[in-house]
Specification:
The chain has helices spanning about 1-20, 35-45, 45-55, 60-70, 75-85, 100-115, 125-145, 175-180, and strands at about 150-155, 160, 170, 190-195. By secondary structure, it is an alpha+beta fold. The termini are far apart. InterPro entries: DinB/YfiT-like (IPR034660), Maleyloyr_isom (IPR017517).
Length: about 200
């Protein structure tokens, strides 16, 4: 089921990219829509660039591969490559064990990275997509913030917690908004935060 959601979110990512110019802004500081499309493409095609995504001293590798990818493809051509290429990312070998929620989350976040600064219409979130994003939130939270002790809540009554010890923050929002916040889009995420 989540593989189908991931595929649909990849299609939505490509649809949103097709609605903006290559130089359109994104929530990724300094990156254009074309840069973000190249980033997604290299997740499947340029293993050397992966090191730069995780280790800042090697960020030059990622920057180089983004530049090369943009030289190799036109913007429209790159969007079509993403749309017709593999939906899972080669750099996420454990994604099938997580029922493809890692790649789903990546597509969701980057779709919003393009959508929000360009004031495109909000995506309708189905109950199945909301549930998959909620489940991704729990894994992403401890991966990206291993020392945090937070509680997450949704308006529908969902709640979850990461960390040990006293809760330092309670973050409330829809699952997609919570995921945006966890992925560092704190200014764009529509959440309410209570600090303890």
């Amino acid at each position: 089921m989540t593989a189908e959601l991931r595929n649909a979110q990849r299609d939505e990512f490509c649809r949103v990219l097709s609605m903006v110019a290559p130089d359109a802004p994104t929530l990724c500081s300094g990156w254009t829509a074309f840069d973000l499309a190249a980033h997604i493409w290299i997740l499947n095609h340029e293993p050397l660039a992966w090191a730069g995504m995780l280790l800042p001293p090697f960020s030059w590798l990622t920057d180089r591969e983004i530049r090369r990818t943009k030289e190799r493809f036109s913007y429209a051509g790159l969007v079509e490559e993403i749309r017709t290429g593999p939906a899972s990312f080669a750099c996420m070998p454990t994604d099938p064990r997580e029922d493809h929620r890692h790649s789903l989350g990546e597509y969701f976040i980057h779709t919003e990275d393009v959508r929000r600064p360009n004031r495109l219409p909000k995506q309708e979130i189905s109950p199945d997509l909301a549930e998959a994003l909620w489940r991704r939130l729990r894994t992403a939270s401890w991966q990206l913030h291993p020392f945090a002790s937070w509680e997450f809540r949704t308006p529908q009554g969902g709640h979850g917690r990461i960390g040990r010890g006293p809760v330092t923050k309670q973050i409330t929002g829809e699952p997609g908004e919570l995921l945006m916040w966890v992925y560092g889009r704190t200014e764009a995420a529509r959440v309410e935060i209570v600090k303890f």
